[in-house]
Design brief:
Chain lengths: ~300, ~375
């Protein structure tokens, strides 16, 4: 029998242990006593194996983005460890590295953002945006930089002559492809997608998901895939972690989550997903049931 | 900005944000006109020796308070002004001038006049505009004169002095915005980027500076300014005082912009790529509001120009023999003088014109830089 939260057999690529992030609550008064805290992330544990896709699902505001950002050290976690295995086999704790030690590690972990508008600097050309990682890490310059940018643009389905354009000239789906190009140009091993497809139309969403799948096969990528509904993760993730109020309430392989959800919260989330089977009714009372769940605690 | 700007047009997508700002600015007629007018004013200031009909020190005491003489054109005399004869009212002793029947003063362009050294480089004696035959004499044996905008109490040419004065008055604005820029961007940048206690400390400091009453501060400053300082030192001291009070506005804009842009995903993305603080600040954050800095600086030039004028007018700033618009206005301290010789107020016209131009220019730049902003 498969233990739901079991550590994958091989040594994991990313291993998050007891991750916490608490934000101080600012009172409205003149003085700002920060004795109260929002526990945006509260003792979160999960592992991701090399080449695996782990879904992180939960309603808006449950702490998914904060978890993702803490894991990448975009923000400093309050407590916990984030063990990451480098390609040379060394394991580092991202949560503890100093800024100087962090820089070389950044090559191997990247992020794709939710908002295709805000994630690209409007004042830089596509060439500068996509080539920036190589410039920062001194991996390529001049003609080589130019070629690699053209290559990666072609790989994500954009035209190499788009290089001289600015982000405002692209549609949402194209911008997301630019963001993907920036994330993969250094050949990282782990990519965190924070609701990478939520802002896109359904048809574009499917194309971008297909692209991510292809890239995963081609470059042996590992994904932490954040989404706010279970619908998107069904065909995309190997395992799914369900998050609620800063905690992971259930972590299991995707088929198991859909076939036999253990936690009441997962069942409510599931009932909100439109089913391919027309006989299964969609649940329109999610709010009410969530309130009942809250009251029961 | 969310709508893709006509992707089928090929070139549209490759226009940089600066090029787009330029396009939008070109639609703002008043701002473009102001820009040209300012360019003319600054060109006049740069080439003052050439454009002014008379040298800076030139005066003809017998022609004090000569009224403005508008050039006329006739086939017989070409461009000319009628000769003037001084006339003292026997009752009021008021000096006035009447037109003389004698030979008119002929005028011309690119005339030979007093020699001058241009920017310490070349010596020349041509003036853009002035009396054609400088050897011509009046009945009393003095050379003929031409006061385009009238004369002051020493018989100095107001038009020439306006041009020489613009050198000081127009550059005061530029020099002090340079200092304002340095202080505002550095202090505001630190405040916004570092945040925390540093931010609070700087913000409270700015509030204290803004709460300072300006005029008493100027008075105090004027009192401590040593009278034996060279004109140049006084000039720089004045610009420094003006900018020491003026940087706070810019610092606030910079801080606010950094605070908001810091939260943009592309700043996070740059951080996750391993970019250094300098790179994030100068490559990602600053370009996002460089246009705002330009707007704020443009809008603050008038305050600097007005500051210089007020200080000099109140005799706390520049003093003769320096020529600036504020110094020229020192002649207008008595209402009686102004009533009798209204052309002494010409510097006011220039100041208003310049300030309006800068304001229109700033308006146009702001609309172009930030089309979604509401006032
Ligand atoms: N910088 C912050 N300061 C204070 N509270 C925050 C901050 N960022 C997130 N939060 C809070 O943490 C919780 C989780 O937010 P987030 O991780 O963005 O949720 P999700 O991505 O699942 O929608 C929310 O209640 C949010 O208000
Ligand atoms: Mg989120």
């Amino acid at each position: 029998m498969n233990e739901p939260g079991a550590i994958p057999a091989a040594a994991p690529l990313l291993s998050v242990r007891g991750l916490c992030k608490h934000f101080p609550v600012l009172s409205r008064g003149f003085r700002r006593p920060s004795s109260e805290w929002v526990k945006a992330v509260d003792n979160v544990n999960f592992d991701i194996a090399q080449g695996e896709t782990l879904g992180l699902v939960g309603e808006s505001g449950c702490g998914k983005t904060t978890t993702a950002r803490c894991a990448l050290r975009a923000i400093d976690p309050t407590a916990g460890e984030v063990f990451f295995r480098l390609p040379d086999g060394r394991v580092v704790d991202l949560a503890r590295l100093s800024a100087g030690e962090l820089k070389p590690v950044r090559r191997h972990v990247q992020m794709i953002f939710q908002d295709p508008v805000s994630s690209l600097n409007p004042r830089m050309t596509v060439r500068d945006i996509v080539g920036e990682p190589l410039v920062i890490h001194g991996l390529a310059r001049g003609d080589e930089l130019e070629t690699r940018v053209a290559e990666v643009l072609a790989r994500v389905g954009l035209k190499p002559e788009h290089r001289t354009r600015y982000p405002h000239a692209f549609s949402g789906g194209q911008r997301q492809r630019i963001g993907i190009a920036r994330a993969i140009i250094m050949r990282p091993s782990l990519i965190v997608c924070d609701e990478a497809t939520s802002a896109l139309d359904v048809s574009v969403q499917a194309q971008v998901l297909d692209l991510l799948k292809e890239l995963q096969r081609e470059f042996r990528l590992t994904y932490l895939f954040v989404a706010h509904n279970l619908d998107v993760v069904r065909n995309f993730c190997d395992r799914v972690a369900v998050m609620r109020k800063g905690r992971i309430v259930e972590l299991a392989p995707t088929p198991q989550i859909f076939a036999a959800p253990q936690h009441a919260y997962t069942r409510i989330l599931l009932s909100a997903v439109p089913s391919p089977d027309p006989d299964v009714k969609m649940n329109f009372n999610v709010g009410e049931e969530l309130a009942k769940l809250d009251a029961a605690e | 900005m969310a709508t893709p700007a006509s992707t089928n047009d090929g070139s549209a997508g490759t226009l940089s944000p600066w090029a787009l700002i330029g396009r939008r600015f070109a639609h703002h007629r008043l701002a473009v006109a102001s820009l040209y007018l300012l360019a003319v004013l600054y060109a006049l200031a740069l080439g003052a020796e050439f454009f002014a009909p008379y040298p800076r020190q030139w005066r003809d005491l017998t022609r004090a308070y000569c009224p403005p003489q508008l050039p006329q054109f006739s086939l017989r005399h070409g461009l000319h002004v009628p000769a003037m004869r001084a006339f003292v009212d026997p009752l009021t002793f008021k000096k006035s001038y009447i037109e003389d029947e004698g030979a008119p003063v002929k005028l011309g362009f690119f005339v030979k006049g007093a020699p001058y050294v241009f920017w310490g480089l070349l010596t020349w004696d041509r003036h853009f505009f002035g009396v054609k035959n400088t050897a011509a004499q009046r009945p009393d044996g003095r050379p003929v004169t031409f006061y385009f905008l009238g004369a002051d109490k020493y018989g100095e040419d107001i038009f020439s002095r306006l041009i020489y004065g613009s050198r000081i008055s127009l550059s005061v604005g530029l020099v002090s915005i340079a200092v304002t820029f340095l202080l505002g961007v550095t202090i505001g940048g630190i405040s916004g980027y570092v945040g925390g206690a540093t931010d609070t400390f700087i913000q409270r400091g700015i509030e204290v500076i803004n709460a300072f009453p300006q005029i008493p501060l100027w008075l105090a400053f004027g009192a401590v300014l040593p009278a034996d300082w060279s004109p140049l030192s006084t000039y720089f001291a004045i610009t420094l005082v003006l900018s020491l009070l003026g940087w706070t506005g810019l610092a606030r804009v910079v801080r606010g912009k950094i605070l908001s842009l810091r939260e943009e995903d592309y700043a996070t993305a740059a951080r996750l790529l391993g970019a250094s603080h300098t790179r994030i600040l100068f490559r990602h954050l600053l370009p996002g509001f460089a246009s705002h800095i330009i707007v704020v600086l443009t809008m603050s030039v008038p305050a600097m120009i007005l500051g210089e004028t007020s200080l000099s007018f109140l005799q706390l700033g520049l003093r003769p023999p320096i020529v600036s618009w504020g110094v020229m206005l020192q002649d207008c301290l008595s209402i009686q003088t102004v009533e009798n010789y209204p052309w002494l107020l010409m510097p006011v016209v220039m100041i208003v014109l310049t300030v309006l131009c800068f304001n229109f220019l700033g308006d146009g730049l702001r609309d172009a830089a930030d089309p979604y902003s509401t006032r």
